[in-house]
Amino acid sequence: MKKANKAFKSLALSLFFSLLLTVAVSASAPRASAANATSRRSQVFSYLTQNIGFNSAAACGIMSNIEHESDFNPALVIIDSNGLPSGGLCQWNGGRFRNLMSFCNNNGYDYLSITGQLAYLKHELQKSEFRKIYNYMRSVPNTQEGAYNAGYYWCYYFEVPSNRASRSASRAAAAVNTYWPNFCVNNISAVLPTSKADDKTLDIDRLININWNKASGNYTGYGVYIAKKTGDDFDWENAIAIPVGAQERRVTLDLSKLGLGRFAVRVFAYNAANGFMGDCDNTIKFNVECLEHRFETTKVVDPTFNTPGKKIMVCEKCGEKQTITTPKLSLDAFESGTISGFDVTEKTADTVTVVWDAFRGAQGYRIYQLVDGEWVKLRRMEADELTCTIKNLKAGTRYTFKVAAYAKNGSDTVYCDGSELSVYTRPTGVKLTDIDNGQGKVWLQWTASKKAEGYSVFASTNANSGFEEVRTVKSGKTETAVNNLTSGVRYYFYVCSYITNTKGNKIYSDPSNVMFAVVK
Ligand SMILES: [Zn+2]
Asked: In CATH, what number does 432-518 get?
């Protein structure tokens, strides 16, 4: 925690303010009012925290002392009862005031400027005689109590006024009561949506809602830092600035790009005009894991008869890889295998479309046709082509096809037994050429279809649906009457030729054109 804090401060502060620049410019124009006491305080606070490295509590303690010494007037010079001058923010006395003047002179500062005096303060604190004070001020906790102790200690050992103890106590009280509420932006607590958010384990693809309590003090926005732990430390690298406005005090984060691990989030209030951040300790920590992998297959290496195959899967949420090994192919199982799902999905007068299921280890398929008791090769299909349309067939004819898988075994190609089926192509269709109406009947006439065993007449009172077979015509006739129709009703007709298969079922041609007539 200590370590992380330090790393956070040095890195995060510079990062945050560089990030803030754009926000600050658009958010609010700097106030025009000149170097009043408020802006002097802010200037001193930023220097103490950012240039010297004190925390807010230490800075508050020092500022309470500066108020009592000079009321933040760098040009104040008072001649003491010994006739020696005391000057500047800290009312440096006698020899120290002379040192301040010569330091400023040597370093190009105006000795009556805040900038010059703060630079001198920093310089003075490096000296061995002030080392103990500096170390103490660096060690106070960043709390109310820390501000009290800093105010007291700085008065007692650095300023060393008369009536040390009582003055130290009153300056310590002012550090807590006047400065701490304004310069430590306090009471910020960041919480995840549920009450026990800290130390939860969250799923990587889950959005993380961060809410926090309203800050007190003079702030213009909030900064949210996200850190991922590497080794022992958190890397405070990602910051989001949230200017005070409609979206204040909550942010939804998608941390999935940062991967799995332990994370910390902390929320700061900042003042863009003064350039300071409240740094209260409100870090929450949680783990981001992939609670339920969602694997997708990214690569498949097929097994062969000699080598096992593998399937590489990657979790689309967290990127974790998993390899599943598939066993080698068995030559016996392959060669004696049949292919399931071999079936006809569509047929016309001159085509038949067949499908089949994938066969394990297949590098491709071959379609055969049975011709005079011999299997004749028709088509070669790729491993992922599990359908084939066989063309240029004769209408109304029975065909027998076979599908077999093949694979390389060394330099040989081996085939499985495969599966076969028989199918009739549809007979050639006909064209309705004439329709005539009569009393309770119509007459129809159509063209002939070669090979047809007969024709079926279909009728409906709707042009598009509801057709039923109403008449079968055999023995080569291409005309018929359809009787028992209702007078005054319009009927629609089409005609199919048909053949019958070995089981005696009709196999129809495609329907003819539709014609209609109103029955007399
Ligand atoms: Zn995963």
From this structure: 2.60.40.10
